[in-house]
Design goal:
This protein is mainly alpha-helical and about 260 residues long. The chain is built from 9 helices and 4 strands. The strands form 2 sheets. It has a two-stranded antiparallel sheet. The chain has a two-stranded parallel ribbon with strand order 2-3. The structure holds zinc ion (ZN) (2 copies). The site of one zinc ion (ZN) has 6 residues, from helix 8.
Length: about 260
C-alpha cells in the first residue's frame, strides 16, 4: 500500500522514467516559457533557494549545535551590518542568476545545446557531472579573482564576510556573480544534460555552498580529509587561505604541485 506514496519517478521498478508531470514541467521551462517568464521564474527559484533554504539550513545548524551534533568553526560574532551587506549583494546576484538562464534557452533554440531525455538516471548522472565540472569552473574563476587587481576591485566583496554565514553564499560583486553563473553555459554546449539536471543543479550547488559558508560543521570523532570541505572554504574566508577549490582538493593538489 505504501508504494502509492512514492513518486513514480523514484520507483525501483521503473527507475528510468520520471513521472509525466515532472517530464512536462522540466521540458517546458526552456522551450515553452517566454524569455520574460524564464527570467522571472528563475529569479524566483534562486530567491527561494537563498532566503528559504538558507534560513532553514541556518536554523537546522543552530538546533544541531544545541544538541552537540554540530559546532561553530569561527567564534567571532556575526554582525547585523554584515547580514545587511550580504543580503543586498545577494539580491543583485539573484537577478544576475535569473538572467543567466536566458542564453541557455537561446542556445537550445539554436540547437547548440541539446537536451537529453528527462529520465531519473540521466538527471542523477547529469547532476554528478555538473557537480564535478563546478569544481573545475569554480577553481579557475576563483583563482583568477585572487589576482591582486581583481581581488582589490571584485572578489573583496565576497571576502568582506570574514566569518561567513549561509547568507554569504551569493554575496558577490555583480561581475563575480556573472562569471560564476556561466557554469552551465560553459559545459552544456559540449555535453548533453536533461533539462531537469540543468534546473536542479542550483539546488545541489547551494547545499554544497551552505556547508562551506555556514560556519558550522559536524562534530565527528574522526575527521577524514574529504569531510573537512565545509571547514576548508570557511577558513579561506577567515584566514585568507590559499586553497581555492571548493568541495574537493584535487584542483589545488594538481596546480600547487606543478607550480613548485
Ligand atoms: Zn577567495
Ligand atoms: Zn565563499
Amino acid at each position: 500500500m505504501y508504494k502509492h506514496f512514492i513518486p513514480s519517478f523514484l520507483s525501483w521498478k521503473n527507475p528510468g522514467n520520471m513521472s509525466n508531470w515532472f517530464v512536462t514541467f522540466f521540458n517546458s521551462i526552456f522551450t515553452q516559457y517566454s524569455y520574460g517568464e524564464l527570467f522571472l521564474s528563475t529569479t524566483a527559484y534562486f530567491a527561494v533557494l537563498y532566503f528559504g533554504l538558507g534560513w532553514l539550513y541556518w536554523k537546522t545548524c543552530r538546533v544541531l549545535c544545541s544538541w552537540g551534533m554540530m559546532e561553530k568553526i569561527n567564534q567571532q560574532p556575526y554582525s547585523r551590518e554584515q547580514l545587511r551587506f550580504e543580503l543586498r549583494q545577494s539580491m543583485y546576484s539573484i537577478l544576475i542568476f535569473g538572467l543567466s538562464a536566458l542564453p541557455v534557452k537561446y542556445l537550445i533554440a539554436l540547437n547548440v545545446i541539446q537536451l537529453r531525455e528527462n529520465t531519473l538516471l540521466n538527471t542523477l548522472w547529469g547532476l554528478l557531472v555538473l557537480t564535478f565540472w563546478n569544481e573545475i569552473h569554480f577553481y579557475t574563476i576563483h583563482r583568477l579573482l585572487h589576482q591582486p587587481v581583481l581581488m582589490k576591485h571584485i572578489h573583496r566583496v565576497h571576502h568582506r564576510s570574514v566569518v561567513p554565514s549561509v547568507f554569504s553564499v551569493y554575496s558577490f560583486h555583480p561581475l563575480e556573480a556573472a562569471l560564476l553563473s556561466s557554469v552551465l553555459l560553459s559545459i552544456a554546449p559540449f555535453y548533453n544534460f536533461s533539462s531537469a539536471a540543468l534546473m536542479l543543479f542550483p539546488t545541489v550547488s547551494i547545499f554544497i555552498n551552505f556547508s562551506g559558508h555556514s560556519n558550522y560543521r559536524l562534530v565527528l570523532k574522526t575527521k577524514p580529509r574529504w569531510l573537512l570541505f565545509a571547514t576548508k572554504h570557511n577558513d579561506h574566508h577567515g584566514k585568507a587561505g590559499r586553497k581555492y577549490g571548493f568541495m574537493t582538493n584535487f584542483m589545488d593538489d594538481l596546480f600547487t604541485k606543478t607550480e613548485k
